[in-house]
Amino acid sequence: MAKLNLEKLRKHIQKFEFKALFDGYGLGWDNPSLKKPILIDGTTLTAIAEKRGFLVFVCEATVLPNALERKKIAQHIDLLHRGHLIIYFNAKKQIWQIAVKELNKPIQYKEVEYYSHQEPDLLLSKLQGILFTIAEEEAGITLIDVTDRIDNSFNTNTEKTTKKFYDHFKKQHAAFMALIQGLENPEHQRWYASLMMNRLMFIYFIQKKSFLDDDVNYLQTKLNRIQQVQGEDKFYSFYRNFLLAFFHNGLGKEHKNDKELIALIGNVPYLNGGLFDVHELESGNADIQITDSAFTQLFDFFDQYQWHLDNGINAKGNEINPDVIGYIFEKYINDRAAMGAYYTKEDITEYISKNTIIPFLFDKAKTDCANAFKSDSSLWQLLKDSPDRYIYDAVKKRL
């Protein structure tokens, strides 16, 4: 078996045909030596495939175990089998879970979700890495080889992308900082370069969702247009004639009645967040200038990557998601602690958002859109199909 029949595997995923997906005509795995199902706290797991002691289990349930329950199940299986992959599924959803074990680190449980209405491209990209050919079988493979292949397929794309992006980011940061004029203090230059790049990375996420004038290349479009009108680098045209107004008066202020501004920036939402307010470095240094070439170079770098708000997407190895940006914030912003800038880690912000922001949004939505909360609405259907995806414990207490 030289290569995968991707269309056949695609159909197996879409039809939830896991046995056929892994067998000798699919991924080249063997029948499992474990014949009896395993029962854990009322949940049944059945082995469907094996490769050198690494087992693939399936768990079918009308209501899928929640994240905490899945972790407990995986921990129980860890005690019985050194390597395993568990596929939880019902009629509409699959959750693929692996245990990632690294030296001197606690076990991490990585999961990939698939819904029946989606295209299974993400799963297909990962499964290509766990195909075992006849030649590999003849050369001899071990449990360690299989485990490494699974880990590489399901875990390392994001980590490699993060490190690659961060290494390039540091070089871009230095280059961008060198093109800032009007700040004499090197620390202030470094700080302002970080601020500008953080703002622009945030914008890259929202422009890819068409939130900025319905243009997925909004910043590049505006840079080109400003240069056509003003002339390239004439009075540092993009920074002075567009970007500051876009930041401070567009994203940073309510502007629906400002026709002149709207003509400049287009249909842009007011975000009501501090990131785009006038910064103290800007208010105290009116002579700051940044050349157009700094932005051209930076956008060329950003455009090498695919920007997604979904943390689960990492199929091609060049995807940037909020986790990557969080890593950069932690590395760069914590270095600025002496200047009053701090990075709050994900576990804290997640706790705050789950226990304050999300309950508030539910209450507000129920007040402003009561029809959405009727028993036959599409909202409740989504909640019924996958409650743990939408309702956290903090919200359940309020329902």
Molecular structure report:
- With 399 residues, the chain is α+β, with helices and mostly antiparallel strands.
- The chain has 3 domains: 6-155, no CATH class; 158-343, no CATH class; 348-397, no CATH class.
- 50% of the residues lie in helices and 13% in strands.
- It contains 18 helices and 10 strands.
- The strands form 3 sheets. Strands 1-2-3-4-5-6 form a 6-stranded mixed β-sheet, sandwiched between helices. It has a two-stranded antiparallel ribbon with strand order 7-8.
- Helix 7 (156-178) crosses helix 14 (322-333).
- The longest helix is centred in the middle third of the chain and has 23 residues, at 156-178.
- The chain is globular, with a radius of gyration of 25 Å.
- The model has no long low-confidence stretch (mean pLDDT 84).
